[in-house]
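Amino acid chain
________________
===
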Amino acid sequence: MLRRDFLKTAMATAVLTAVLPVSAKNKNTPTDPIGHFADVNGQHVFYTVHGAGKPLILLHGGIDPDSFGSNLTELAKGRKVIAPHLQAHGRTPDTDRPLRSETMADDIAALIGHLKLGKADVMGYSLGSSVALQAAIRHPDVVDRLVLVSAAMRQDGFYPEVVTAFKQLQANAATLGSGVKASPLGETYPDVDWTNLFRKVGDMTERPFDWSAEVAKLHARTLLVFADADAIRPEHMVEFWKALGGGQRDAGIGGSLRPANELAILPNTTHYTLPVEPMLPAIVERFLDAASKAVG
């Protein structure tokens, strides 16, 4: 199978960006009913809209705009899911701007304003989780609840071999790019300059970052979701959880002392299978519904 074969040869990329997870093309990716473009923050951002109800901004992982596969459809059963393509991904063209979580977060905040959503729930996976986290940090006025799937708040939250792999992306961009171009993903998005995308993702991911101080000040009610065999170290999962106020004490018999934020670690999953894991939508919906009831 081409996607699986390529994944094996592109392991250095796959860990963060989930280049070819068991995802969209293997999991009945929902067809794009209506595509839209919004000119926001100097970017020509493509997005699709699915379902109806309270808005949920759904941010894909790196390289593959269809990271969530059919889970997008599941999430859209109870709410309006708005799925943008991040800069240089899918149908959103690239610009001269480098890829940074912070500036892509500004794009998402501007899109929420452009769509006149007020506050929206925001959910991101892998690269998308970094963008979602930065949106909540930089634009708390437009982010209501936050769902972070396989997120790190520091670069060393990833296993050392993953960090090493990040540093090899730019050097391997041409090989990786040609591989994706020849894959089903490349056929779906023929206008993407894959080599350029890998270079820009490599430039971003090799840069050290530490957002732990900002995480500790987050106001958005947050759900962390990890795989039990993730690219994120388990020690970092717990550290992230504690930074959000979790893991401080027993919640009591009635659970009245439990923290407002939540943590989920899904069994028998990896970084690559997590976004299409069938358990994911139910866990996310339970969190979002409970958070809604808690405020009203």
Q: What stands out?
A: The radius of gyration is 18 Å. The chain has twelve helices and eight strands. The first strand starts at residue 35 and ends at 40.
